[in-house]
Amino acid sequence: MASTEEIREGLAEIVNEITGVPAEDVQLDKSFTDDLDIDSLSMVEVVVAAEEKFGVKIPDEEVKNLATVGDAVTFIEKAGS
Amino acid sequence: MSKVTIQAAREPRSSRILGIGGYRPSRVVTNAEIIEHIDSSDEWIRTRSGIESRRWASDEETVVSMSLAAAQKALADAGVQPEQVDCVIVSTVTHLYQTPSAAAEIAHKLGTNKAAAFDISAACAGFCYGLSLASDMVRAGTAGHVVVIGVERLSDLTDKTDRSTAFLFADGAGAAVVGPAAGPAEAGIGPVVWGSDGEHLDLIKQREDWRDALRNEIGPTMPHLVMQGNPVFRWASYEMAKVAQEALTAAGVTVDDLDVFVPHQANMRITDAMARTLKLPERVAIARDIATQGNTSAASIPLAIERMLETGEAQSGDLALIIGFGAGLVYAGQVIRIP
């Protein structure tokens, strides 16, 4: 199982690929909407890519609870364990 | 028991699209006008949908009148006379007469010689559904020439105060004439890959049926269209990219053979995501008619093809991938030659 830092790095790569936000800005305390300026449709794309990369399922109703990068990393850690 | 053999209509042959035509309503509706009724902004609408403006029909621009204009252009483009038309198929969800069909009236007004005529309901996949039916009719010999029309007045069923749909839906008509190809090498319509997924009926739908809308306690209302944007975006961007890939495989071609990609003009973001998922080569021209036309449901694909021919982004003979998807959920995709 990947470490927290490995998941954050993987997620940062995805965010960079989809939205162009620099990977180093994607830190655990950052809010997807307020800090990284990622809208709901880009968030769907990030989620789909994260599902593929980490082999987890992130249901639609869960996505709105993932406010920060840390929330997403925690969810992926739990879903993958 | 009678021993006679029923005579087959004819040997199967190949089909192709012979002509395309569209009708765009005269009134341009800007984002500025849309946001008079919703809490939104021009910038929000552009970034979420790619829509800068759309067309809404006037009272005189009816489902039938817009269809007629589009069909007449398509017939002229095809060089086919109305009396050569054996069938008219109209796909629409906004012909607000339950009966008779729009197709019967259009077939008559077009000047066909009592052509078979019927409407189909396949929402935003309607043009591709109709094209598949028309192609099979021509191939089987059921019809010589078929006019397929996708037409909508979605503005009639749009809730102008719903910030998730008010900016999206629009009006227009697009038509294609389908007829026989000279031989198998000239075939212009690939096998359809289609289906439905009624489990997700609620993602895009008319809010209530007409009976409930008319008996509403607050008085008669229009049964508006409602949509859950994010799940639809996910389904369209990823599941439909798989269907598009299957349509390529069914036609025996790859993305490298394509010249043009014309997805239903649902949302520019869906088009972009599909193009990325399909890994389309950069030289493939991608339809982006939605920017000034909005989402016209069944009309969007023929309208987009017409625009690409006008601008030179597409040429006659180009290999195109088309795919429609929408409420139902329903979907259909095929590879075609641009007429």
Automatic annotation (TrEMBL), chain A:
<feature type="modified residue" description="O-(pantetheine 4'-phosphoryl)serine">
    <location>
        <position position="40"/>
    </location>
</feature>
<dbReference type="InterPro" id="IPR036736">
    <property type="entry name" value="ACP-like_sf"/>
</dbReference>
<keyword id="KW-0963">Cytoplasm</keyword>
<keyword id="KW-0596">Phosphopantetheine</keyword>
<dbReference type="InterPro" id="IPR009081">
    <property type="entry name" value="PP-bd_ACP"/>
</dbReference>
<keyword id="KW-0597">Phosphoprotein</keyword>
<feature type="domain" description="EAL">
    <location>
        <begin position="1"/>
        <end position="81"/>
    </location>
</feature>
<dbReference type="GO" id="GO:0000036">
    <property type="term" value="F:acyl carrier activity"/>
</dbReference>
<dbReference type="GO" id="GO:0000035">
    <property type="term" value="F:acyl binding"/>
</dbReference>
<keyword id="KW-0276">Fatty acid metabolism</keyword>
<comment type="pathway">
    <text>Lipid metabolism; fatty acid biosynthesis.</text>
</comment>
<dbReference type="Pfam" id="PF00550">
    <property type="entry name" value="PP-binding"/>
</dbReference>
<dbReference type="InterPro" id="IPR001633">
    <property type="entry name" value="EAL_dom"/>
</dbReference>
<dbReference type="GO" id="GO:0009245">
    <property type="term" value="P:lipid A biosynthetic process"/>
</dbReference>
<keyword id="KW-0275">Fatty acid biosynthesis</keyword>
<protein>
    <recommendedName>
        <fullName>Acyl carrier protein</fullName>
    </recommendedName>
</protein>
<keyword id="KW-0444">Lipid biosynthesis</keyword>
<feature type="domain" description="Carrier">
    <location>
        <begin position="2"/>
        <end position="80"/>
    </location>
</feature>
<comment type="function">
    <text>Carrier of the growing fatty acid chain in fatty acid biosynthesis.</text>
</comment>
<keyword id="KW-0443">Lipid metabolism</keyword>
<comment type="similarity">
    <text>Belongs to the acyl carrier protein (ACP) family.</text>
</comment>
<dbReference type="GO" id="GO:0016020">
    <property type="term" value="C:membrane"/>
</dbReference>
From TrEMBL, chain B:
<dbReference type="GO" id="GO:0044550">
    <property type="term" value="P:secondary metabolite biosynthetic process"/>
</dbReference>
<feature type="domain" description="Beta-ketoacyl-[acyl-carrier-protein] synthase III C-terminal">
    <location>
        <begin position="248"/>
        <end position="338"/>
    </location>
</feature>
<keyword id="KW-0808">Transferase</keyword>
<keyword id="KW-0276">Fatty acid metabolism</keyword>
<dbReference type="GO" id="GO:0004315">
    <property type="term" value="F:3-oxoacyl-[acyl-carrier-protein] synthase activity"/>
</dbReference>
<feature type="region of interest" description="ACP-binding">
    <location>
        <begin position="265"/>
        <end position="269"/>
    </location>
</feature>
<feature type="domain" description="Beta-ketoacyl-[acyl-carrier-protein] synthase III N-terminal">
    <location>
        <begin position="118"/>
        <end position="198"/>
    </location>
</feature>
<keyword id="KW-0443">Lipid metabolism</keyword>
<keyword id="KW-0275">Fatty acid biosynthesis</keyword>
<comment type="function">
    <text>Catalyzes the condensation reaction of fatty acid synthesis by the addition to an acyl acceptor of two carbons from malonyl-ACP. Catalyzes the first condensation reaction which initiates fatty acid synthesis and may therefore play a role in governing the total rate of fatty acid production. Possesses both acetoacetyl-ACP synthase and acetyl transacylase activities. Its substrate specificity determines the biosynthesis of branched-chain and/or straight-chain of fatty acids.</text>
</comment>
<comment type="subunit">
    <text>Homodimer.</text>
</comment>
<comment type="pathway">
    <text>Lipid metabolism; fatty acid biosynthesis.</text>
</comment>
<dbReference type="InterPro" id="IPR013751">
    <property type="entry name" value="ACP_syn_III_N"/>
</dbReference>
<keyword id="KW-0963">Cytoplasm</keyword>
<dbReference type="Pfam" id="PF08545">
    <property type="entry name" value="ACP_syn_III"/>
</dbReference>
<keyword id="KW-0511">Multifunctional enzyme</keyword>
<dbReference type="GO" id="GO:0005737">
    <property type="term" value="C:cytoplasm"/>
</dbReference>
<feature type="active site">
    <location>
        <position position="124"/>
    </location>
</feature>
<feature type="active site">
    <location>
        <position position="295"/>
    </location>
</feature>
<dbReference type="GO" id="GO:0006633">
    <property type="term" value="P:fatty acid biosynthetic process"/>
</dbReference>
<keyword id="KW-0012">Acyltransferase</keyword>
<feature type="active site">
    <location>
        <position position="264"/>
    </location>
</feature>
